Amino acid sequence: MFKGEFSTAQLKADLSASWAIAKKDMRIYYIKPGTLMFAILFPLFMYLSFAVGKNAPAATLIPGLISITILFSASSIGPMVIPTERRVKTFERLLSAPISFYSVILGKTLGGFLFSLAIAIVPLLIGLACFGTQILSLLGLILGLALPAFCFATFGIMFASFPTENPGDIMLLLNFVRLPLIFISGLYIPIESLPDWGQAIAALSPLTYANDLIRYTLEAKTTYGPALDSIMLLLFTAVFLFIGRRLDKKFRK
Amino acid sequence: MGIVPEISNVYDDLSAWDNLMFTGELYQVEKSERKRRAKELLETFGLYDRRNDKAKDFSKGMKRRLTIAMGLINNPHLLFLDEPTSGLDVQSVLIIKNVVRQLNKTGVTIFLTTHDIEEANVTCDRVAIIHKGKIAAIDTPERLKKTIQSVQSIEVAFDKASQNIMKELESILTVSEVRKEGDKFRLYTNDPATALTGIWEYAKTNNLKPITINTLGPSLEDVFVKITGLDVKAERRNFHV
User: Fold this and answer.
1) ipTM of the complex
2) Which of A1, B15, B54, B77 lies 20 to 30 Å (CA to CA) from residue B46?
3) Contacts of residue B23 in chain A, CB cutoff 8 Å?
């Protein structure tokens, strides 16, 4: 079977390999006290440091906290795992296996996706238990968590395409993009309150649509509507995957 | 196809067993076959008793054995081995060489990359010498040696040696080059009979007792030196300890 040639058997093999990669990554990298604490505490303090002191009711902080938690946990996994595996040459093992490149990327993405979903439950539970947060639609909530988690996992993978063996190099680059996203995506100031140019910039951020979708599922408030939020997140996911692949090809040459 | 790179790229945080199970999944080996094969490979490579230990606790040789076992989990017909025994302990080298021989007997084609020319000489059916990224020669080891039949040598060891022994041996008639190999000296000549006479005379004059004397044909290393144009004398002149 040539790489790129489609067959059901190859697709099944690719998906099975992706799942094996995700399971392996979760065992090795994610289910460690340090990783878990970093994924929960860092976004929590980051968010609270800007949100505390505002006159908004506590329950309205929860969607933003969930969004930022998903952004940080999902997008950190690729940049942490892939350079590390490049350094110890285990990434070569995956690339030399009889599976497609996208299967490897899907495996890495799945790991970040599942990890961030598990982490996002923490602020959700805090909201449900302490601040009267309500789940308006279970299906909506699942979509509201899954789409941003998958989108931000591919966002991290795209950055991980830079050919370095040091996770710190990518984290530095990633934070140059990730931190500004927090301030332009309507987490602290509602999109509607932003000037026209602010709204235009917000529309370019995937975090805007993630936050809007989560806000819709927990507060029934939305700027763009759940359909547009979902489409935009899917579109961003496709763009991140495409750019990641192009970067990988370019740097591999 | 199985690929075993030069670096032992095992997952340090997984046990030997889990490393094999993961590789099996990656190569779509059925679960029951995966387990059977993993047990068989761990036994073959002498790691079965340590199957539940994480690879980070393994020695360099054990990691190397595990890496090769991972490359064999899918029963490949074609195996690429990059420097399989470089820098390993004796036990690991013996196990790996034995496995390579057994695999070859069962019909597995093995591409072995090595800088150890003697390993290539005793292990391979065909040898390709790569120089500056291109195949400079490819044939069986013995046929390659035949191409430089003119290069013959005498290996000699004396009970004692003077400080200038290298220069003195080089001055023997028909000896073109002398190399020190451990406590032995290898004298290159195109006329072993004349050189032998010279060695005897040299020993007698200097009151030396020869412990070993062997006449040798060209080695694969000689072929390599000739083909790649490596100037050993110049290299030696430039190499100061």
Assistant:
1) 0.80
2) B77
3) 93
